[in-house]
């Protein structure tokens, strides 16, 4: 019996004057490596294959299962919700923690044996830097976890509804970064997130991930539903494009012979 292919994982630290972001990603789900210690965050004491720690407080962007581990804290609740939906339906395991220039950096939830921040000091700008740098870090993690772009389906597409809203995402793992998005949100804010940041965040991710991405909200009257259906469509497209094709190991899915 042949061995299963290795899981595709990455751990990224992105530090700027405005934000500090850590991302641990597995494109194939399962347990994640603990996030390391640095000047801005305390190390996690959970070993990658240890039993899943007890969750002491429910949080909208956390999920602790043997097949998938998701813990997300950016300081922006709606952004956490979108990243949770994306990673959940893409089949990823994902941890994100961020100290941004928001009004508060303290975590609203705790997981035993994990101290998210060494300091809860406040700094205030807005949601732009946190969103941009989180998506850039996630794009870098995606590229690192994917490794050589061989043996992949390469292309992915998905339609996703949420009640009255319907969105479509089309993805090409092309190494030709490009983004087109059509969202047409009615309101300037969705929760605590500036609605412009949905477009800007996904554009930032596409650039860092080296992918061509088109996301269109086809219809919908509720901005929350429009955004969430878009992220769920993206998740389905990612799952399809990242699939490894049996028998094509090492093959480049391009007439150029390189991606």
TrEMBL record:
* SUPFAM superfamilies referenced in this protein's UniProt entry, alphabetically: Ribosomal protein S5 domain 2-like (SSF54211)
Q: Which GO terms describe its molecular function?
A: imidazoleglycerol-phosphate dehydratase activity
Q: What broad class of enzyme is this?
A: lyase
Q: Where is the composition biased (Low complexity)?
A: 26-37
According to its UniProt entry, one GO biological process term is:
L-histidine biosynthetic process
Pathway, per Swiss-Prot/TrEMBL?
Amino-acid biosynthesis; L-histidine biosynthesis; L-histidine from 5-phospho-alpha-D-ribose 1-diphosphate: step 6/9
- Region described as Disordered: spans on this chain: 26-57
Show the InterPro entries listed in the entry: IGPD_sf (IPR038494), ImidazoleglycerolP_deHydtase (IPR000807), ImidazoleglycerP_deHydtase_CS (IPR020565), Ribosomal_Su5_D2-typ_SF (IPR020568)
In the Enzyme Commission scheme, what number(s) does this protein have?
4.2.1.19
| Gene3D superfamilies attached to this UniProt entry | Imidazole glycerol phosphate dehydratase, domain 1
Q: What's the domain of life for this entry?
A: Eukaryota
Q: What is the protein name stated in its UniProt record?
A: Imidazoleglycerol-phosphate dehydratase
**Record's family?**
Belongs to the imidazoleglycerol-phosphate dehydratase family.
Q: Which reaction does it catalyse?
A: D-erythro-1-(imidazol-4-yl)glycerol 3-phosphate = 3-(imidazol-4-yl)-2-oxopropyl phosphate + H2O
Is Lyase tagged as a keyword?
yes
Keyword annotations: Amino-acid biosynthesis, Histidine biosynthesis, Lyase
